[in-house]
Amino acid sequence: MDIERYRRQLTSIVNRKRALVFIGKIKDKRYEVTLASFTGVRTLFRINKQEPITINLEREIDKGELELVFVAKQELVVLKEGTNHLPAGSYRVRVLGEGATGRLSLY
Questions:
Q1: CB neighbours of 106 closer than 8 A, spacing ≥ 6?
Q2: Number of helices and strands (H, E) in the chain?
Q3: 71 has which bridge partners?
Q4: C-alpha to C-alpha distance for 10 and 27, rounded to whole angstroms
Q5: How many C-beta atoms lie closer than 10 Å to residue 67's C-beta?
């Protein structure tokens, strides 16, 4: 997915989305999201850490395209499946999708 094409939407504070299903929940120190036919951009949560951040991403995409992006002001960091390391700072954790159906798990 071309993240730069969505830079304006990702760096905005506005959520622009449509989905048949979008369910987020915290379970056993994991943030889990289940979605169906998700298109758009949505903030999942905010994180502000004074020390470096380590976050693990598991995803299962059945259809469409889906990216998880950490947004710090105008900087975009696309998370890859597996372990991700980010510098200390304040981030908005946003999901970007195009007709996406699947599941995400962050821990």
A1: 30, 31, 32, 55, 56, 57, 68, 93
A2: 1, 7
A3: 76, 92
A4: 26
A5: 21
- Report the C-alpha gap between 7 and 27 in whole angstroms: 31
- In CATH, the number for domain 3-106 is 2.60.120
Which 8-state DSSP code applies to residue 79?
P
Question: Contact 66/59 with Cβ under 8 angstroms?
Answer: yes
**What's the pLDDT tens digit per position in 6-46?**
888 888 888 887 878 888 888 888 999 999 999 999 999 99
> Taking the domains of the chain in order of start, what are their residue ranges?
3-106
* Contact residues for 65 (Cβ-Cβ < 8 A; gap 6+): 1, 97, 98, 99, 100
